[in-house]
Amino acid sequence: MSALVEVADLSVHFEVRQWGFLRLGAVQAVDRVALTLAEGESVAIVGESGCGKSTLARTLLGLHRPTQGEVRFAGRELSGLRRGELRAYRASAGYVQQDPFGATAPFLDVRRILAEPLIIQGVGRDEREARIRAALEEVHLTPVEELLGKFPHMLSGGQQQRLVIARALILGPRLLVADEPVSMLDASVRVEILELLRRIQGRRRLTLAFITHDLSTVRHYAERIFVMYAGRLVESAPVDALLDAPRHPYTQALLGAIADPDAANARRQRELPAGEPPSLLDPPRGCRFHPRCPHAMAGLCDRDDPPDFDVGERHRSACWLHRE
Amino acid sequence: MCDALLEVEGLTLDYHTRGGVMRAVDDVGFTVGRGEALVVLGESGCGKSSLARALMRLLPRNAGGLGGRVRLAGRELHPLDDETFRREVQWQGLALVMQASMNALNPVVKVGEQVAEPLRVHLGWERRRALARAAEVFELVGLPGDFLRRYPFELSGGMRQRAVLAMALVAEPDLVILDEPTSALDVLTQAGIMNALKRVKAELGTGFILITHDVATSSELADQVALMYAGQLVEMADAATFFSAPGHPYAQALMASVPKLRQRERPRAIPGEPPSLLDPPVGCRFAARCPRRFADCARLPPAFALAPRQEVRCWLHQQDGMEDGV
C-alpha cells in the first residue's frame, strides 16, 4: 500500500492573546505528531476532548497551518500549495463535521446544499444534477425526488448525517475525515451511519480517518487506532492489538473506564487515574501523562520525553516502561 | 431495601403543539424502593425527560393534562398545590439534576454558595452551617473542599457536574432524578461521576432515577431498568435480567445495537424510526420495526409478567413463561 497522507513532526500551536496584543502563551493543541495513512486504509484517531484530535484532523484537511513540521498528501506538502491548488486539494479531501445539526445552512434545501461544492469547483448544471442524485442514492437518502426539496430541519438526525456525508463525498475525495460522526445520534442510528461509512470506504477505496472519543465503537469500523493525549500521539496499533492488549498506561486507563452493559458494573468502583488532563498552555515536562500515571518513574518520566517504542507488529507506544 | 419510596401509577403527560395534542408520557407506572436505583432508558423523543419533568412538576407552558398518581414515601403528590410541593417535596423529597445543568451554574457566584443555597433558602440554615455541610457533600462527590470558594469558570466540565450533583444532594433528598448526567462528558470523567454516584448510593442510601439513552453507562448504577419507547414503558426488569435476557423485541434490538468493547460481535442497527407521537399507531408502537410482529400486534399489548421481576409489553409473552425463541 502506498502512503496517501504523511505527517512528520507536526505541531499546531495557537497563540493566546489578551486585548489582541498581549501574548499570554501558546496552546500546544498538537505537538510533534508523526503518522502515515496508507491509500484505502481506515483509521480511528481517539482521545478525550481537548487532546488535539480535531485539530489534527483539521490540519490534515488544510484548515490549520502547521506551526512546525509538515503534512504531505500524495507526496505534496500542503503548506506549499497556492490558493488555486488548495481548492483542488479540498476536492480530494472530504470532511464530515462533528454536529450534523449545525453543519448545513438551515435556509438551503438538500439540492442546494449538495450543489454548493460542485458550483465552487465549476461543475456545469446538468452534471451537477446527476451527481447530486447519485450522491443521495449512495447514502440511501431515498426517495431522491422527495428529498431534493427538503430543508435540513425536515430531516431526522440520521438523515441529516447522511446528507453531510453525501456532501463530503460529492467531489470524489480520496481522503474522508469524519469528526465524531455519530456522537450526537441515538444508539440505533449510530450503527447505521457507521456501517454506511464502512461500506462507502470499502467500495470507493477511500482513506478514512475517523475521529472519536468512544473506543467501544471503533473495533468494526477501523483497521488501526491512534490514541492521543494532551496534544501527543501516545499509542498506535492495529485495532485488535490496541483494544485487547494496550501497552500505554493512558490507553489502559481509557479502556478500563469503558463499561459494557453488565449488571455487575453497579457493584464495583472503577479504577481510574487521578486528576484531569493538563492545560495545553503549560503542559507537564517529560511525558504528559506522568502526573496521573500509576507507573510514573521519578527522574525519568517527569524529565524526558518518551520516544515511540516498537512493541509489536505495527504497534508503537510512547512510554518509558518499554525501554530496553 | 424493598419498601416503596416512590410509587408511580398511570402517569400521563400531554403537550399542546401546533400539530395537535401529543401524549409524551403514556400510562407509565413503576415503583422505586428506598436506596434503589431505577434506570429509565430510551432514545431521543421517547418521553424519558418529560417523565422527569412530570415527576418534578417542571412543566413547559404548552403542557396539558398531567394524569395518574405519584406517591412519595406514602404521600400523594398530585393533590399538593405548587407552593406546598416546592416547600415540602423539592430538595428534601425529590431533587433533580437536569440535562446540561452543569452549564446553568451562576457564573458570578462562588460554587460553594450555590451548592449551599437549598439549605439556606429551603431549610433556613445560617450560612456558616450550610457551607460546612456543602463541604461534606463536596468530599462525598469527589471535589476538594477548597473548591467551595471557586467560581464555575475555574472548574472543568466534570467538576461542575459534580458540583451540581452536590447541590442536589445537599438537603439529603430521598430520591435524586438524574437526566443524562454524563452524556456530554469524556469517558474517564463519566466513569468518575458514576463512581461518585455509587458511593453516594452506598453511603447515604439515596434512591436514584437515572434517565439516559446510554445502555452501557446505565448498567453502572441500575438495580432496575425501565425501557421506554414512543411514550410508553415497554419493559421493566431488574438489571441482571434486563442486561442478560431482555424480553421485549425492542429491548433485544437495542442491546444488539450497542457496540461492546470486549466482544467481537458486530453491533446491528434497528431499521426504521419511532412513530410520531402526534399520531401513534393503535397497536404496539414498535410493531412497524419489529422482526417478530404478527396479527395480534395490531392491538396494544398489556404488560405481561415474564419473571418475578420482569414485565414486558409484548404479545409474544401472552402465555406467562412462554419460551423465548430468539
Secondary structure blueprint with pairings:
The complex is a heterodimer of chains A (324) and B (326).
Chain A: E1 3-18, E2 22-38, E3 42-46, H1 53-60, E4 68-73, E5 76-77, H2 83-92, E6 93-96, H3 110-120, H4 125-138, H5 144-147, H6 157-169, E7 175-179, H7 187-204, E8 207-212, E9 224-229, E10 232-238, H8 239-244, H9 249-256, E11 309-312, E12 315-317
Parallel strand pairs in A: 3-8, 3-9, 6-7, 7-8
Antiparallel strand pairs in A: 1-2, 1-4, 4-5, 9-10, 10-12, 11-12
Helix pairs in contact in A: 3-4, 4-6, 6-7
Chain B: E1 4-17, E2 20-33, E3 37-41, H1 48-56, E4 63-72, E5 75-76, H2 82-89, E6 94-97, H3 111-122, H4 127-140, H5 157-169, E7 175-179, H6 187-204, E8 207-212, H7 215-218, E9 224-229, E10 232-238, H8 239-244, H9 249-257, E11 304-307, E12 310-312
Parallel strand pairs in B: 3-8, 3-9, 6-7, 7-8
Antiparallel strand pairs in B: 1-2, 1-4, 4-5, 9-10, 10-12, 11-12
InterPro entries (chain A): AAA+_ATPase, ABC_transp_ATP-bind, ABC_transporter-like_ATP-bd, ABC_transporter-like_CS, Oligopep_ABC_C, P-loop_NTPase
Region (Disordered) (chain A): 265-285
Keywords (chain A): ATP-binding, Nucleotide-binding, Transport
Radius of gyration of chain B: 20 Å
Q: Biggest interface and which pair forms it?
A: A-B, 38 and 51 residues
Q: Major sheet of chain B, described briefly?
A: 8 strands, mixed
Order of helices and strands of chain B: EEEHEEHEHHHEHEHEEHHEE
Which labels suit this protein?
heterodimer; A: 324 residues; 12 strands; B: 326 residues; alpha/beta; 8-stranded mixed beta sheet; 9 helices; disordered C terminus
